Amino acid sequence: MKKLKAAIILDSLKIAEWQKLALEEASDLLDIKIILNCKNTNIPKKIIKNSLYYSLNLLTLRNKLSKKSNYKLSTEEILNFKSNLISSRQCIPTEISNKIVESNIDVIIKFGMSFIKIDDSLKNIPILSFHHGDPSKYRGRPAGFYELLGNADKSGIIVQRITNQLDVGHVLAFAESKLTHYSYKRTSENFYKQSQFLLRKALLNLKKNNLLEMKTNGKDYHLPSNSTVLKFSTLLFKKRVDNIIYGTFFEKRWKVGTLNFNLDLRGDNIINASSISDIPIKDNYNFYADPFFSLDGSKIRLEALGNKSGLGDIIEIDVEDNDKHKVLLTGKHYSYPFSFLLNGEEQLLPEVASHSSQKFFNLSDKKKNLIFIKKLEDKRILDATLFFHDNVWYLFFGELESASSKLNLWVSDTVNGEFEEHPSSPICISPSSARMAGRILVTEEGIFRFGQNNNRAYGAAITISEITELSKESYDEKICGTVKIDDCYGPHSIDINKEKGLVLIDYYTDEFSAFAGVRRAKAKFAEK
């Protein structure tokens, strides 16, 4: 793929860590020719009015990902300049603009300067800029602040081709980031982590002249006053206390059950909890979760959390007689027992991220000879889900540090061969639907992917996305439905047996337990 000739705008040759990562992710698309080094970016500050915000900023928005360092030069030409000020907007001097045009630059990436006024000579060169916020709801700044204050579900991130109006440019890439409602620092780290993957997506869309249809008419926010920061800090403190109390004395009481299949895959489904036939939980287990049907539909495989160990076993239960069960995997933490067919035999691909790289084994092999997924040996991956389509194997998975908000896609011609990252990966960047919630479903209506909605509570519901484009070169999906349970949280995993007309799901309620914190600590210690 032909690279774009790029210029990067910086302030005093400084670049943030997340910006460096974004350039690295997009390195296959960029040929950086020029560094536009602005020497006089100076954003006016109202020290008295916003003093508490600036203190908050030091403790939160300034973190390891936003930390700036000197840009490491290689062959780039540096064009130093002082911007002209026109009605408080910075403008690149004419002589610098002329050099940009003469160098046949294809794209300018803005990592410096403040609000730019674009002169006529640069109007035909796309200037790409990040904005941390969903412009249909939150324009202006500071990033993530008003979303937390307003108790929003999530935060938006865009890369846009800027115009001379604030945050109303043409959107080229969009992602969503998880809000940690008791921590502004974690919230900011979340949106900086997700930001690194957006530049590449924006450049791909720029090449295709593919603009996203998004409203950009949200409220224009400004730096908060001291009284607003006090209100904000009090709110987050209360939520932090609530989170500590929950972690110490409450735990999710997961259950697995079946119900008749009548889901609308392109609609919002609310399941009545009374319609679920629960599978009885054995006395030595605390809960059941992550259920899958065996490929012949005769068995249910699931994660069973041990009362004493705090670790998950994979057990197999007879569909017709729930009292018949056997343990398939134990001793370490196992979950998400996805299975697939290979050479006419069923293989188990369980989640083993807490202690191993991803592997699978033949269920008919009593010795359980393990086969590792090639090229992923150095990764700890979650909820690995294989899908065979048009003679290609597609592997959907999350990674240990980012699974709740980022979904990866890798491909291979054979399961035993080497997997490679798909050109569109990551294919979903959103806590609403990124983490896999079961196998890919193929029906006469289309191909559907189930994703966990982790905006707030973990595993609170499921988002249905229709896969509209799938090949080794491209991937696209669109959200088309949801699945929720009344009076409970969930489902967080789903599997459908079309032949039997059954849906298999898990769900939970929050229950008080004096030993909840002890069990959490014990499980973490055991995993180490």
What report would you give on this structure?
This protein is α+β, with helices and mostly antiparallel strands and 528 residues long. It has 2 domains: 4-224, Rossmann fold (3-Layer(aba) Sandwich), CATH 3.40.50; 242-527, Neuraminidase (6 Propeller), CATH 2.120.10. It is 17% helix and 39% strand. The strands form 9 sheets. The protein has a 7-stranded mixed beta sheet. A 5-stranded mixed beta sheet has the order 15-33-32-31-30, with no helix packed on it. β22 (345-351) and β23 (359-362) form a beta hairpin. The relative contact order is 0.10. The model has no long low-confidence stretch (mean pLDDT 93).
SSE map:
Blueprint: E1 4-11, E2 14-16, H1 17-25, E3 30-38, H2 51-59, E4 68-70, E5 77-81, E6 84-86, E7 89-91, H3 94-102, E8 107-110, E9 127-131, E10 138-140, H4 145-149, E11 154-161, E12 170-178, H5 184-195, H6 198-207, E13 219-221, H7 226-249, E14 250-260, E15 268-271, E16 277-278, E17 285-293, E18 299-306, E19 312-318, E20 325-329, E21 335-342, E22 345-351, E23 359-362, E24 371-372, E25 381-389, E26 392-399, E27 406-412, E28 420-421, E29 428-429, E30 441-443, E31 446-453, E32 461-470, E33 475-485, E34 494-497, E35 502-512, H8 516-527
Parallel strand pairs: 1-3, 1-8, 3-5, 8-9, 10-13, 15-33
Antiparallel strand pairs: 2-4, 6-7, 9-11, 11-12, 14-16, 14-35, 17-18, 18-19, 19-20, 21-22, 22-23, 23-24, 25-26, 26-27, 27-28, 27-29, 30-31, 31-32, 32-33, 34-35
